[in-house]
């Protein structure tokens, strides 16, 4: 497959304008300006060292940066999450603890888009290889008998009562308090988890007043609950506790 492009370069940056496929920028040094819709892959010592959306922390002088500017038919936040999952499958440890639901049709579009970008990403040092065998992540099983158990959360000023009523449905009860401000990165901007949390709050804006829930809220996963309440930053399976003090992880982990 051949993709036509135009572009320009300097001693610090190479630009590939891919027309309908957006743009790829390769930076030899950390860019001083970052667009909030840009996806950055960080390369250090010829290895993938990190991935970021809409912001960059301070990286060492020997780091290089690959910027993906997606076209109009691709939702940047969704593609960023899709890309983290593809990199995770390829064996990279990215510690992306939040979850999103992306439509099957969108996943097909994003996969086709990624396949078109791969030759250029490979040249820039981003390798997606066959995954090595890794220690499996903890799996949790929904248990119907827990549907009536009021799990409590008390983390970073956020307090809530949560019910796991169905496999993909959690109810955060009215009266829950939310962490007021999304945390900032070292660069002083809101990171991806913060942006995702704010987006969840926008979806439920009518149910929130002064950082307090005035109506119950339905969410789709433990990680969504944590991101909604306190912008992630911890393993939420360990933050949800039963009246007896047992974590949701202890009660549902598959051994």
Properties at a glance:
255 residues; alpha+beta; four-stranded antiparallel beta sheet; 12 strands; 24% helix
Descriptive notes:
- The protein has 255 residues and is α+β, with helices and mostly antiparallel strands.
- Helices cover 24% and strands 23% of the residues.
- It is built from five helices and twelve strands.
- The strands form three sheets. A six-stranded antiparallel β-sheet has the order 1-2-3-6-4-5, covered by helices on one side. The chain has a four-stranded antiparallel β-sheet with strand order 7-8-9-12, covered by helices on one side. A two-stranded antiparallel ribbon has the order 10-11.
- A hairpin with a 2-residue loop joins β10 and β11 (212-213).
- The longest helix is centred in the middle third of the chain and has 20 residues, at 104-123.
- It is elongated.
- The N and C termini lie far apart (45 Å).
- The model has no long low-confidence stretch (mean pLDDT 87).
Quick recap:
By secondary structure, this protein is an alpha+beta fold.
Strand order of the largest sheet: 1-2-3-6-4-5
How many H/I helices?
5
* Largest sheet features: 6 strands, antiparallel
Structural class: alpha+beta
What is the CA–CA distance across the termini? 45 Å
